Here is the input.
Amino acid sequence: MNILIFILLNLLKVAVVTVIFLMAVAYTVLLERKLVGRIQNRWGPSRVGPFGLLQPLADGLKLFLKEDLMPTAVFRPLFILAPIIALSCALISIGVIPFGENIRWHGVDMFQIADLNIGLLVILGVTSVGIYGIALSGWSSNNKYSLLGSLRSSAQMVSYELALGLSVIGVVLRTGSLRLRDIVNLQNTHGILSWNIFGGLQIVAFFIYLCAAFAETNRTPFDLPEAESELTAGYHTEYSSMKFAMFFMAEYANMITVGCVATVLFLGGWSSPFGSLFPAFGGPLVQALLPVFWFVLKVFSFLFLYVWVRGTLPRFRYDQLMGFGWKFLLPIAIVNVMATSLVLAFHG
Amino acid sequence: MNVAVFILFALLCLGGALNLLLQRHPINSALSLIVVMSSLSVLYLLLGAEFLALAQIIVYSGAIMVLFVFVIMLLNAGEEERTHGSRAAYLAGIPGVLALFAVLAGTFITLRLSFGGTRLGSFLVTTGDLSRVLFRDLLLPFEVTSVLILVAILGAVVLARKEH
Here is the structure.
């Protein structure tokens, strides 16, 4: 009987997290359209529902009802497989991210799907497999714009993955563990002062992670794979209806995942910025949900930053992008790893 | 449970390897190789080698195979021509592979007792354990290997450098 409850609760947890995640993806699109609208001095979507709040529903319905075109010259199996790879890789990473204290109910961890010893590596691994979605979509479309877009994108993702991987090493060195809960617990003691970005002196690593993450998710100022002025739409030019929607969702899901990882690694995860400055208030329910509130707030500010950057910065040129990744970010990341290990060796 | 997972992924691995040989289109072969690499990583995970399993995914399935796919995409290789293959390859190759397999299997079965064994899933090497072995007991071989890789990188840079 107990094992049955355990399995049911786990399934329920996975379902709830997935639904919330997909809703978050839909509303991130709305957030982006609204914010970019305000930055450009217009209102953004405002017709469907109050403040345009039902716009994601309308968009989803529209994409779902569109005709699913299958161009004649595509390589069919991979053309269909590519968006599935992209979306599933984007959805898997959320499974290892902790978004609240380790509170157990019937032996089930309420605020994390899977607590793995190697959680951080799982995220890096899933990201590196996710490249195939984009690479294969461009190739199988049999379209020169798609191919160019996907080549750019894969080259960019492979290059920036190095800087991304090296930037998190400082955090791992400080924690001595690849488990995401351990990483947050270390930053949980004195509020904002013990977060890795400030107390851990990982602010350089945070900057590297930020740049590399923008490039990994193909967002402005590194959105060359879909530079519409030169490549029509890049790797998803030939896609329509739900297949296009899957790429679209994968991009926004990746943004949220990157925000979650940045929060966990550098911004103290679910820990409150005030530490234990204020006495605990409310019942156990409030105390359990308050960390989740902080976590969501941090991820939200990260997404806000994403949109703000998109509304502000122009696109890089491709050689500038590669030069920035290999000649600037990578050396700085290596220096950061060396400096962190030296400091830890003499003071840790 | 462990045995079921083992059988599933071992079959997937073998199927991927066979598919790699039988496919006519290079990109399908490359994708089968990714399946092989990824199922191997699940087998490592079953043996408790967490770090190795994920390193396999990140390095082989992620980085190296992306380069393979990249090259195939750039060269725009089409379908291979189907030839009948050389008779010598069939005559010598298949018995040769079978003989090699038999010798290896025989060796492992006879040496099984001296190797010792473990049950699937009863064994866990954490990243900490692994790094203690790598950076304490095997530090010299580890560093020598890294110098070897550095030499390879320098060679690649020299080869790719433009002539002025």
User: Anything to note?
Assistant: The mean pLDDT of chain B is 84. Residues 126-164 of chain B form one domain.
